[in-house]
Specification:
mainly alpha
């Protein structure tokens, strides 16, 4: 994938394969800028209006566009507005250079807590560039949209990445910088669509210190992503020995007793509820049975209850002695799947897929219609879980898909799942 390629190769391939840029408005085309012969030697303007595209790209990659009055941002803005009037061989006529310029302008025009000053032409350009056939252009557009990312942008990115594995890791980097819940559900969806090297790269990146520590940023500040992060996306070494470490019983007990519900919930999300982890399950079961106890903050949280309910179903569904607890856990999940908490919804999908009751087919199939970014994750959850009802869910999702494109996407994701399902469950089971 692209994360292992040298930056120079990325630049060369980006220039060679780029499609043409979207047309500019007449007001932009009417602007003028100094020609190459008269540009100040060594300036950013010279790099953009002259023909050395690699030099222009390198300057833009190294540029910090941190405000509308920063000299570099002023230069980029002037060239941007006149780009269509430049000679055809000018660097600023290239689609990748234009995408980097648009990214700079979006970052430069942001005021704290407001999107009012975002250059609309730059935003429009980046959204068009998301679907460009050149991976370098699409990646730059993803990263450029981070400060102004919308739910619609997230849905577009997840849809594109579901069938373009070269974009998976950079998309995770971009979505991971967003404060939108949908962006983080999108990461789960992207991760679930891939295995092997792509999955390892994603897991390693998400495990890096600070990557998921966004509470201060998301409390009211807009996220800015520097140009240099693109180089990191292209050159991060491949991971071959990363292994996810599940929580042990002591960690789970500490999480359940923690005064910080967010950290406790993250630990619960990581646990494996299998016979090999009986100590973990015992701690969770104690907390579940004592959830009415005063001061038990985490277990009174609705999302945490859904996570615990899924764990009990994973551990006990095949155990006759625990049927009453399973019934109660299933009731929690059937309520959670209709809620607004996206994490709880996805946990409910997993747990109900294990139960495999016909009454849950419509409930699960409705999730991707309500939360489009969850489509990949839902397909894989029901696809990897044995049971005829889960095949019915997939069939219903296909039948009720709003477009042929969505139906094709369901098929594309399930294509990765089907061989493993048949090996584990048997054909048609």
């Amino acid at each position: 994938m692209l994360s292992g390629l040298p930056l120079c190769f990325f630049l060369c391939s980006a220039f060679a394969n780029a499609d043409g840029p979207p047309p500019s408005s007449s007001s932009e085309s009417d602007a003028t800028v100094v020609p190459c012969a008269l540009a100040s030697p060594g300036s950013l303007t010279e790099a953009l209006v002259c023909s050395d595209k690699a030099k222009a790209a390198q300057q833009l990659y190294d540029l910090a566009c941190i405000g509308p009055q920063v000299p570099a941002a002023i230069e980029v803005r002037q060239v941007w507005r006149s780009r269509e009037s430049l000679p055809a061989d000018s660097a600023a006529r290239d689609i990748l250079i234009q995408t980097l310029m648009a990214k700079c302008l979006v970052e430069a025009s942001l005021e704290p807590n407001s999107l009012e000053r975002v250059d609309p032409s730059a935003l429009s350009f980046l959204r068009s560039a998301l679907t460009n056939s050149n991976p370098g252009v699409a990646i730059t557009a993803m990263l450029g949209l981070v400060p102004a990312l919308t739910k619609g942008d997230v849905a577009t990115i997840v849809k594109i990445v579901s069938t373009h594995e070269d974009l998976a890791f950079p998309a995770v980097m971009a979505l991971g910088e967003s404060c939108l819940v949908e962006a983080h559900v999108g990461i789960v969806s992207i991760r679930s669509a891939y295995s092997g090297r792509q999955r390892n790269d994603i897991d390693k990146y998400m495990a890096e210190p600070g990557v998921q520590d966004l509470p201060d940023v998301c409390s009211g500040k807009k996220v800015r992503i520097p140009q240099s992060v693109i180089a990191k996306a292209m050159n991060l070494p491949l991971v071959t020995e990363f292994r996810h470490q599940s929580s042990n019983a002591t960690q789970v007990k500490a999480a359940l007793d923690s005064p910080d519900p967010n950290r406790g919930l993250q630990t619960l999300l990581d646990v494996q509820c299998t016979p090999e982890h009986a100590g973990v399950v015992d701690e969770i079961r104690k907390a579940w049975r004592g959830r009415g106890t005063p001061g038990n903050t985490l277990v009174s949280d609705r999302t945490a209850q859904a996570v615990i309910a899924r764990c009990l179903i994973q551990a006990d569904f095949a155990v006759t002695a625990e049927k009453a607890e399973i019934t109660e856990a299933a009731s929690i999940l059937r309520s959670a799947i209709h809620g607004d908490d996206v994490m709880a919804v996805m946990v409910a999908v997993d747990g109900l897929a294990i139960i495999g009751a016909d009454e849950d087919v419509a409930r699960i199939a409705e999730v991707p219609r309500r939360i489009p970014t969850a489509l990949n994750a839902v397909v894989r959850s029901v696809g990897f879980t044995c049971g005829a009802s889960n095949l019915k869910t997939l069939a219903l999702m296909r039948k009720e898909a709003a477009t042929d494109e969505m139906r094709d996407r369901i098929d594309a994701v399930y294509k990765h799942v089907e061989p493993t399902r048949e090996q584990t469950c048997g054909k048609g089971k």
